[in-house]
């Protein structure tokens, strides 16, 4: 794989969009996914990837209409349970037929060999990890955020925050938030290593122990699988404000483009036909939802095996709000706008309820409803946003 600069990615992608040769990228936003797919959207947009679709578990099949599928951070068990054994086997078939799977953090664990249900239905890569232990003692930061039960063992986080990563001879920083540290990937090509800690690295085990687990271990890999490929990234290369990390993602996509046989023309008119201009009510309800979310500071909720707070929920709303401000510039249009407005109103109602419940079993159930509502409404908005953006750029030429 050749490491491209952000400028090279942008130039190639804009040219490909106009020529009808832009990679079709699907991003999984369904159950089990966290807020980090919002980071991914920002990185891809900054690199000139505008041919994006946001999909749910029902869209996972052997004939996904995309060249690339991203499954980013979240809850690995939650992802596997949500997608289900049948769809996971269909996803494997999609890869064999030429699809490119890019897994980040939880999405990188998903295809690793496992004997546990439901992970054992997607055994595509034989990588073994160092952040796995058969027992816990006082050296481990034994909190729900940092340790996950895995059969009779535990997957744990040795550190959190930025690390120095070396990818294809280039060093840069990228954050690790629970992603894998591999020490053996006999059936894959190594792309990157963890090289050192930084002043901002947070140690969740003693530093000497963390060094043995993380430093000089594998951070990213690539595996050919049938006619397709898998790219697995432990760190969050898509984290905001990390152009080198984003370039790794862009390079991975562009590296496979010459092998794609999916070529098509993007319509200049059909995608936005029937969509409505942004209404004042949509702006207002998203603004109100952001304020309500800010008011939930200091509270936490457990969803699946992950702990959520208002900052994580806020990423969805901030991502939508940032693009609403571009509405006039790109003639942003929304499909089923009234339905989207009602969905955001539901988010406000759920947040109001969570402030009253303040945790507990009922509070966690409400938080899970909120995550699903925020994710689905944001995905609907982003599908319309990128359709409008593509239409605007192609029309502009």
Quick overview of this protein structure:
Helix content is 42%, strand content 21%. It is of the alpha+beta class and 397 residues long.
Helices and strands in order, then pairings?
Layout: H1 6-19, E1 25-28, H2 36-46, E2 52-55, E3 68-71, H3 76-96, E4 100-104, H4 106-109, E5 128-129, E6 132-133, E7 147-150, E8 153-156, E9 159-167, E10 170-176, E11 182-184, E12 189-197, E13 202-203, H5 207-214, E14 218-225, E15 228-233, H6 243-257, E16 276-277, H7 280-294, E17 300-303, E18 306-309, H8 310-324, H9 327-330, E19 333-334, H10 337-357, H11 360-396
What average pLDDT do the residues reach? 92
Along the chain, the helix and strand elements come as: HEHEEHEHEEEEEEEEEHEEHEHEEHHEHH
CATH topology of the largest domain, which one? Rossmann fold
For the termini, the CA-CA separation is: 30 Å
CATH superfamily of the largest domain: Class I glutamine amidotransferase (GATase) domain
Any idea of the CATH class of the largest domain? Alpha Beta
Rg value = 21 Å
Count of spatially separate domains: 2
Contiguous low-pLDDT stretches (5 residues minimum) are: 262-270
**Strands, count:** 19
| CATH architecture descriptor name of the largest domain | 3-Layer(aba) Sandwich
Structural category: alpha+beta
Q: Give me the number of helical elements.
A: 11
């Amino acid at each position: 794989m050749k490491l491209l600069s952000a400028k090279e990615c942008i130039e190639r992608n804009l040219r490909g969009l106009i020529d009808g040769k832009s990679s079709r990228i699907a991003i999984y936003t369904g159950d089990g996914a966290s807020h980090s797919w919002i980071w991914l959207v920002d990185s891809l947009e900054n690199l000139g990837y505008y041919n994006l679709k946001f999909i749910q578990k029902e869209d996972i099949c052997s004939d996904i209409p995309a060249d690339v599928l991203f499954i980013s951070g979240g809850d690995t068990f939650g992802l596997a349970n949500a997608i289900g054994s049948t769809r996971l086997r269909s996803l494997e078939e999609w890869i064999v037929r030429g699809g490119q799977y890019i897994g980040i953090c939880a999405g990188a664990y998903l295809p690793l060999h496992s004997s546990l249900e439901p992970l054992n239905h997607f055994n595509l890569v034989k990588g073994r990890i160092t952040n796995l232990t058969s027992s816990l003692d006082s050296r481990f930061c034994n909190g729900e955020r940092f340790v996950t039960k895995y059969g009779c063992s535990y997957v744990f986080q040795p550190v959190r925050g930025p690390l120095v990563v070396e990818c294809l001879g280039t060093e840069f920083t990228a954050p690790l938030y629970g992603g894998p540290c591999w020490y053996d990937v006999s059936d894959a090509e190594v792309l990157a290593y963890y090289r050192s800690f930084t002043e901002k690295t947070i140690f969740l085990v003693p530093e000497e122990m963390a060094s043995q687990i993380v430093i000089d271990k594998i951070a990213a890999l690539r595996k050919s699988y049938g006619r397709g490929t898998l790219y697995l990234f432990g760190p969050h290369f898509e984290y905001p404000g990390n152009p080198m990390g984003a370039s790794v993602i862009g390079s991975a996509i562009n590296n496979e483009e010459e092998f794609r046989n999916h070529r098509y023309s993007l319509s200049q008119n059909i995608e936005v036909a029937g969509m409505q201009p942004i209404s004042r009510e949509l702006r207002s309800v998203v603004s109100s939802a952001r304020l309500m979310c800010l008011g939930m500071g200091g509270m936490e909720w457990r969803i699946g095996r992950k702990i959520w707070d208002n900052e994580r929920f806020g990423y969805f709303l901030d991502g939508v709000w940032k693009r609403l401000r571009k509405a006039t510039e790109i003639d942003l249009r929304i499909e089923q706008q009234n339905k989207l407005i009602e969905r955001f109103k539901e988010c406000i109602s759920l947040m109001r309820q969570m402030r009253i419940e303040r945790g507990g079993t009922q509070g966690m159930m409400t938080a899970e409803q909120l995550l699903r509502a925020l994710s689905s409404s944001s995905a609907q908005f982003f599908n319309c946003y990128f359709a409008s953006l593509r239409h605007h750029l192609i029309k502009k030429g």
